[in-house]
Amino acid sequence: MASNKRPNFLIIVADDMGFSDAGCFGSEIRTPNIDKLASTGLRFTGFHAAAACSPTRAMILTGTDHHIAGLGNLIEWTDFSGQNFPKGSKYSTAPQRGMPGYEGYLNSRVAALPEILRDKGGYHTIMSGKWHLGLTKERSPHARGFDRSLALLPACSNHYDYRPDAEFPKFLEKSVIALHMEDDHYVEKLPDTWYSSDGYGNRMLEYLKEWQDDSTLKEKPFFAYLPFSAPHWPLQAPKEYIDHYRGTYNSGPEDLRQQRLKKLIELGMIPKDVRPHPVVADEVQGWDEMTAQQRAMSCRAMEAYAGMIECLDHNIGRVTSYLESIGELDNTFIMFFSDNGAEGAAYEAYPMVSGELMAHLGKYYNNHIDNIGNKDSFVWYGPRWAQAATAPSRLYKAYTTEGGVRVPCVLRYSPLHKGREGEITDTFATVMDIAPTLLSLAGIEHPAPEWKGRPIVPMRGKDITPYLSGAAGNIHDPTEAFGWELCGRAAIRVGKWKADFIPFPKGTSAWQLYNLETDPGETEDLAQQHPDILQELLVHWEKYCEETGVVPLQPELGARFHEAVEAQMKEGEWMEYEYWKPGALEERRRTEFVRKIAKVADPRLKEGAAGQPSNVLAGGTEA
Ligand SMILES: [Ca+2]
To answer: Can you give the pTM of this predicted structure?
Structure first.
């Protein structure tokens, strides 16, 4: 391999895949291709994302916090407050609507990584997979720097592009239609044989072959972004993959959880004496309370989930094998990771959606036990299976506890980590580190404070190349603070100390304090024992809110911010493109379905900067 050539980049993202769902992270699911990347690269057990999809994707593509980049929350959750809140919750996302940083697409404060790599660095930029960073042409991958793209624009869809001829309940209208854009135009019809992971793998291969076969293009290195929409629900996969798992999960989710924990300990990925967080699943029946039929149905959902992951892995293998066949594998910096923790929502138990949703599914889908996983089935697997995959961590997707934000990650780039193949590292890293790392490897400086005539923000992530090459012992300084916030769930971490704020009913609606070094499961709240450390973290929290523009949804997350905001828009007046309405996919009528988004002034208080952190934590983080 020519060493004077700048590296190619391949960033592969799984959607809602749990921490222990890959073979190289202790899973029984067959993932030979991810495992091969791991055995020839590094595995990260301290890699962190946001708690859900589009916020993470915003951070991947900008290197900064999602509250800055326009995805302060998922647009689906700011648009319709109730759908993501289980029984007993009173929280509304209304105060976030219309606020700066909550646009629901990559906003103009950021330059997107492909824009910089292409326009400043001369890279060829290609994408195949889920975008979730804007629904209209001017927000599309094409508009944000991709030379070639096939992109699923919304959060999720039927993986086979199947949809019944029916009016969708509100929850499903944004969850069924496989709205894709290819370069600068909407895809009118996907191929009849469409299945998401195969479709994205196919298209990525086409783009790579196009690059390989064109001598002019080939002079440029490539940036390839391959974000799968699997294994996000609806759990669907080709039968040949699902069949590999028939009967595998018959002993239930607790048994699987114990098996996974045992494997994680054997691999040295979690401490032998780890105290796993208990399973939190009060809203659904216990395994022992279920009938044999209910248990069998549940196992089929898990089998379908496993099949989705194997199919995703197969497509990763097709892409990496192709790179190997053209002699580009070792010159390609590759990362694979999940965008958030496993998805544990039990939508059947959500008062805002369950009745209407379940009635619709009963009428238009076939969730017979022998049909689960097929195109006309529509299932999710719920909190118990999810927590088998997030164990020993607390909770799952959409929560800012480790179960929502700690994700499996594999990195392979031989020229930088020679001799460390197969290594497992627990060093702290985040998805915000990807952009600075790629720019560093490409030899490009980030353009902040200005890009194409507009002011833009700098990156908040760190270049990880000094860590990979052994020049640095860690990626982030242990005194650096990291915040998370999503739907009023929050966390702030400095070194081993982490404070979580999880509202009722999944949490206490009070700040809790954990020592992740001795208690990675976040099981023992030390807030009473170490009030000084908690207070110190909360100073960092306020600073994080000020720096990133978090609009807190509870007084506990920032009374002085909270008092200044109130509901700005009504329910359902936010989504910018109503693509699920009849006729909305027709080119000539599309503009009828684009809504104007009201803008309000930023009412966050400007006076009184957050207090400067004292050194309580600095003392407390010495490992
Ligand atoms: Ca996701």
So the answer is: 0.95
